[in-house]
Every structure is written in structure tokens, then in C-alpha cells.
Amino acid sequence: MKEKFIKSSIILIIGGFITKVLGIVNKIMMTRLLKTEGLGLYMLILPTFSLFINLASFGFPIAISKLVAEDDKNNKRLVFSVIPFSLLINVFLIILIILFAPYLSHYLLKEDKVYYAIIAISLVIPFTSISAILRSYFFGKEKMVPHVLSNIIEDIVRLFLIILGVPIFLEHGIEYAIFYLIASNVVSELASILILFLFLPKNFKLTKKDIKPSRIYLKDSLEISVPTTISRLIGSFTYFLEPIILTSILLYTGYSRNYITTEYGIISGYVMPMILLPSFFSNAISQALLPIVSKSYKKKNYQYTKKKIKQAIMISLAIGGVFTISFIMIPEKILSLIYHTTEGAAYLKFFAPICLLQYIVAPLTMSLDAMGKSKDNLVVTIVISIIRTIALPLFALFKIGIWALILSTSINIIVDTVMSLKRVKRALSV
């Protein structure tokens, strides 16, 4: 089992690295083809796209991975119990998107050119939901290669679609190019789904019993997915409020809009991407951890569960520690190498040791989900969201500038880690 965990982690890290590189190439091609205006429109619609994808998946991928890993259900029936409900949610969201697309584009995003792109989101979300559900099945089976390969193929297909299609649609207008860019995800997701189907066993068969939805299976899935979805929505809403609160209070205390924009840009554009880089590794480790913890906890093998969680934490800390030391010792050189600037070096140096705790949050959160404690994750999210929302304006009133954001984020990370760790220990103290 130990070898399987390490192997799964390595596969996910390598696969994640490849998809990250492909993602960078995709972004470079988009930048070159869309130019500044087009890229700006795409980045404007991206948060809305991400929000609806999260709503459409409804936390089912984590639920299915956990339940499949426990291996005490008809897995085919489990998947076919979730898919109809997932599609029902998607139908509701599609209607919602189409009805409110004019309002979203004109009044909220204040850009009529993204109207067609919002409509394109409604075409994409059913395919992303099905793809996520199928991936989660293989995760539960501890088969990481299908997930990795489907992601790689998806990114390659998307790259070809960008190169071939965007120039054609640009001839008709930038709004149509953005529409195409979003809608092309239908094809890339279909390619991903096809790859996943190829990994099904050769003797795979479906019977009437397999495709008959089970209320019990759906109930078990919803007990995990609902808290997960609510937790993500609360987190997203808190981060949505962050720049609004920060800007309002700093302007009130006498800081210029130019200072706020510049310093917030340094934090969000330079510092945070560097700080969160090791999270890429801890997230891969966490994904590999989920099926193992689900299975061992279900079998009441608590000592083995503790061992695996400790192992995931130690690996995450070891990888994160290397980055942390580098961020503390040579922040200027790292920023200069990556971004050709030294702005934000002081922030990076201060943040680094605190964010070492952040790297173990992913294994802890995933462990709670794997042990059926998704409600604990929801409680943690609510508490840290309240703390963040209160701490940010309080610190800002002290006239310490952008450090208000850094200090409130630091407190948030510490509380998040401590609360998650306590809940994991409580779940295992049986």
C-alpha cells in the first residue's frame, strides 16, 4: 500500500507538471491571438466560468472517489445514481445562465461583449460534470493514469482548437472569438471522456440493475457533496469580497487608488503565485491520499490511516520546506528570475514561513473528506471566512497599508491549519 501511495503521488505530480506546461503554452497562444483586449475579456469571464463549473460538479467527484474507494457498493450503480441528479442540476444552471446572461454581462461584468461567452458556458458545463464524475471513479479505484492522460489529451486538443479556430472567429469580432474559446471546451471535454472510456475493463458490462438509480447511493453522495459545495461557495464569496473591502477601507484611511492597485497587483500577481507553487505538489499528494484513507478508515484500520496522513503531511512539509527556505533566503533573486522584478520581496520573505502551514492544509482537508467528515471542513471554512472578513478591515484601519491583507491572510492560514489538524485528530481518536 505504501508503494501504491508513493506511485500514485509521483504519477499525479508528473501528470500535473505536464498539464501545467501545456496550460502555460495555451495561455501564451491565447495572448498572442487575442491580444490585450481579447485576453482581458477572457480573464473577465473566467471567474464566472469557474463558478458555474464548481456549481455544476456539485462536489460529486470527491464523494464518488470516497465511496468507490470504500468498495462496499455497486460502483456502476453509484455512478449512474449520481449522473442523472448531476444532469438535473446542469439543466437548472443552463436555464439560469441563459435567462441571466444579459444581466450578468451588462450590469455585473459591465461588458456586453462577453454575452455570447456566458451563453457558451451553458453548453460546456454538462460535459465538464460527466468528465469529473468519470475521473473520480478512477481515483476511487486508485488508477491515476486515466485521470492524468485524459487531462493531457484535453489540454492538447484545446491547444489545437485555439490555434485553428480563434483566428477564424476573430474575423467576425472579438466577442465571437471569446465565445469560441469557451465553447471549444465541449470538444476537449469529449476527448477527455473518450480517453476515460478506453480505460474501462474489456469485460465491462452494464445491466438494467447497474443503471437503475439508488436513493441510498445518492443520499450517501449528497452527504459529502453538499457540504463540499457550500464550503467552496463560501470561500469563493469571501475572496470576492476581499478587494472590495480592502479598497474601501484603504481609501477611507487616506491611501491613494494608485497605491492600492499597485500593491494589490504585486501581492496577487507576484507573491501569491510563488507562495502557492508548492501547493501543486501537496494537492497531488492529497489526491493520491483520498482513496487510501477512505478504504482504511472504512475498515476501521485507524493506525494505518494515521500513518498515511502523517506520511502525506511529512512529504508536503519536506517539499514545501525547500521552497520556504529559498523564499526566505533569496526572495529578490527568485522574483527577478521568474518575473524580472524584485517588487514584493519583503512580502514573500514574511509570508514564506507562515505558508509552510498552508502546504499541509490540502492533505488535512482531503483526509476529512475521505473519512466522511466533510461537514467539519464546512465548519472550518465558515470560521476562517468570518475571521478573514473581520480581520481585514480591522488591520486596514490601523493604517498599515497592504500589510493589512498580509496579516489577515496569515491569521487565516494559521487558524485553518490548527482547526483542520484538530478535527483530523478527533476523527482518529476512536
Would you spell out the secondary-structure blueprint of this structure?
Layout: H1 2-57, H2 60-70, H3 75-108, H4 115-140, H5 144-170, H6 174-183, H7 185-198, H8 215-252, H9 257-275, H10 279-298, H11 302-329, H12 331-339, H13 345-358, H14 361-370, H15 374-396, H16 403-428
Helix pairs in contact: 1-3, 1-4, 1-5, 1-6, 1-10, 2-3, 2-4, 2-8, 2-10, 3-4, 3-8, 4-6, 4-7, 5-6, 5-7, 8-9, 8-15, 9-13, 10-11, 10-14, 11-13, 13-16, 14-15, 14-16, 15-16
Percent of residues in beta strands: under 5%
- Biggest sheet overview: none
Task: Give the mean pLDDT.
Answer: 84
Q: What is the SS-derived class?
A: mainly alpha
Q: H/E element string?
A: HHHHHHHHHHHHHHHH
Please, what is the oligomeric state?
single chain
Number of strands: 0
Spans where pLDDT lies below 50 across 5 or more residues: none
Instruction: Please give the domain count.
Output: 2
Which outline best applies? globular
Kindly describe this structure.
By secondary structure, the chain is mostly helical. Helix content is 85%, strand content 0%. The protein has helices at 2-57, 60-70, 75-108, 115-140, 144-170, 174-183, 185-198, 215-252, 257-275, 279-298, 302-329, 331-339, 345-358, 361-370, 374-396, 403-428. Helix 1 (2-57) crosses helix 6 and helix 11 runs antiparallel to helix 13. It is globular, with a radius of gyration of 22 Å. The mean pLDDT is 84.
